[in-house]
Each structure stands twice: as C-alpha cells, then as structure tokens.
Amino acid sequence: MKLNISCLQMDITFGDPQANFETANRMIMDACLSGTDIIVLPELWTTGYDLQNLPQLANIQEAISFLQEAAVKNDIHIIGGSVANQNGQDIYNSMPILAKDGQLIHTYSKLHLFKLMDEHLYLKDGHDTGLFSLEDRTFAGVICYDIRFPEWIRRHVLEGAEVLFVSAEWPLKRLDHWRALLIARAIENQCFIVACNRSGSDPNNQFAGHSMIIDPWGHVIAEADLGEQILQAEIDLDQVQQVRKTIPIFLDRKPDFY
Ligand SMILES: NC(=O)CCC(=O)C(=O)O
Fold it and tell me: Which CATH number does the domain housing residue 94 bear?
C-alpha cells in the first residue's frame, strides 16, 4: 500500500490562532494541489508555545472543525499536529486524528512533558497511547519530546504501528539530537517515521525545521531545510515487512531479559 504524505512545516505565529489557521489553510491547499493522502501538522500549531495565555487561547473544538472541513473537502486524512485542549482546569497538548470522512478517530495527549520549555508548569500529561487505524492499517502519533523515550515508541510498534507520526516544535540548538533520534527510532523499530517540525522562531527559541520522512531501513527519503515549506514523499508500507524479513529483530528479541 502506497501513501503520499505531506508535512506542513509551518512558521507558527506566537499566540495568534487566526493567523495560524490562515497559514494552515494556505498550506493544506498547496499540498493538495500536488496530490496527497495524509497531511501532518506540527505541535501546538494554533498558538505556538504561548503557554501563559493558553487558558484564553485553547480551543481544540475550533481546530477540529477546521480540520474536519479540510479533510472532507480535500479527501485527505489529517494528523492534526497538536493543539491546546482544555478540560476543566486542565490543559493537555493533544493531537487530533481525522479520517477523510471528517471523523475524529483518535485524540492523543502528549505523555512526556518537556520541562526545559516549561510544559510541566502549564500542561497535564495524557494517559492514552497514540495508536489508531486508517485504511485497515495501524499507525501511531506521538509529540516531540516523546521521541526521547524508546520504550514508548516500541510499545506502539509492538502493538502494530507501521508508521510513526511525530509532531514537534524542536529547537534548532538540538537539531543533531532530532535527526539522530528519529533515524534511530526508524532503524530500531523497522517502521516509517514521518516527523513534522515547525520553522521560524518565538520569543524563546529558534526552531529547527528539518521535517523528515524516514523509511524502515533508516534511509532519510525526504528532509526539509530551515524555512516554511511542505515536505512531500510517497511511502510504501510493504517495505516494513521486507525489512523485518531481512533482519528479523521482532523474532530475535528476548523480552524475558529486558
Ligand atoms: N516541544 C518539545 O517537546 C521539545 C523537545 C526538545 O526540544 C527536546 O530536546 O527533547
């Protein structure tokens, strides 16, 4: 099964959802012009890291309605990056997944909060996996800092994920970690990694861009540069089983020892 993927490497405007909806709309239209099956957005794409103002800005329903309309109009599945998701007093960093018929099929909330960017002061951690199914195949979505936890990613792959979608706001100063971690996660799990980062800067960080699409052998099949752009590639899910036959790590692993 072949899928055309588009990562929208947006330059997010700090604390301005309206501007960000306009950017996302323009980029979705552009991505669809060249034909795409799945669109992926970055982390906190409606607000950026304007954490202090999230109680006023958080509106996951507005983002879901926007994405539902885009999914149906363009006949595309959408991995909705993440948006601030208020539930009572608590705010989660949540990834909505929309099927092309507009159905919200899953919402994953970031499990590992990143203290270096103060997430633990403003956000709550989620308690569900990022697993979901589309077109009878199993996928998973995780958010940014989650990729530093190989056990978390492995759990999703052991439960069937063939493609891991990553939405991020990863700073430029750790670009080397971003690339190395994503390539390692692809090689050790023999799965596709589709990682959508943001570009641009906010008052505290310059972001790395460098969205990447990596195959189950660890080859980088597409990589963006620093600026705002749409990264597109076709992936062939049959490659997952081919790689797992060549080096059968899932047959050879010894879970009794670890
Ligand atoms: N938004 C994030 O979770 C950033 C994670 C990060 O920068 C890291 O180094 O890890």
Answer: 3.60.110.10
